[in-house]
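Let us practice reading a record.
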Amino acid sequence: MKIVVVGGGIIGCATAYELARAGCAVTLIERATPGAEASGAAAGMLAPLGDSAPSPFEELAIASWRLYPKVAAELREQTGIDVEHVTRGTVYPLFTIEDVRLAETRAARHLGKEFGIEAWDTAEVRDHEPALAPNVRGAMFVRGDHWVNNQRLVIAYAQAAVAAGVTLRAGLSVSRVVVESGRARGVVADGERVDGDVVLLATGAWTGQLVASFGGRLPIEPKRGQMLSLAHVPPVLRHCVHAEEVYLVPRPSGELLVGATVERVGFQGAVTARAIAGLLAAAIELVPALGDLAISRTWYGFRPWAPDSLPVLGPWPGVDGLWVATAHFRNGILLAPITAQLMTTWIMTGKPGMDVRDFRPDRFVNAR
């Protein structure tokens, strides 16, 4: 089977890799370089548990989280790249006794044991993360929350894909999907037609534009996320810290990532003073010692968002051979392994292998 994958972000690279391993002839087209957009602008957190009751999305996220140890080891073996899979867990600061009691209840959930969920009192917070502000009364600690270096991860997936036989064509911009007699036949990229038996669109916030090229509609839009990093040597924090207004991710490289905004500003590409000031204020309020650290860099990315905040995965209704894998919003890194596995199984066998009713593109295409 000849497959054209459009989009060299984490979803496109991971899925191209899995498709090639399944025996497909894969061409991966990326207009810039792998990971140039949202995938390279993330923090790499692997935190699959949601705040509400279990859902199909949480099941998808947990399934992907479970794959990560194997993925990290496999990519290192295939490429020699260490994706910095850190397994020290996340501290969720709590500011009232009521919040601490809710954390204790959550720790008793059926997944509490697998994810190592603990409710910390004030003394335990001071013992584990003494730099947190005095007004932090307790914390929920999730040992099962991990994180990776997302930039390294995308590069590793891209290199592994090429090693598996994928033809990577970078610097080529796809302008339209070729649909003939109700079937996707390929794409047009910089005036060149690239044919395939199957076309998979993994183009993030730009997927709606390609769908429009054959008269379809998919309400995917960009949500700009701004971030910064601080010099973190010697380290102030040992764990990832995730509060309502800000998250802090310590990397082995000596950076502390601070993120992230969620802004509906279209494709306005900019790092703004107001956003960075807001992130810094929230970070310093949470960890006062951060005020003395140097800012090492700032950046932004456009995260693909659907109106229900869920991914869009599966075959495009009414066009044979056309598939989409997009709208992962703030969870593209976390969901990459399971998305790649799911899409490969679905394309090869016609069955996804898990419950995907909430994620199919039909929910938008058939909407009135």
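A brief commentary: The two ends are 35 Å apart (CA to CA).
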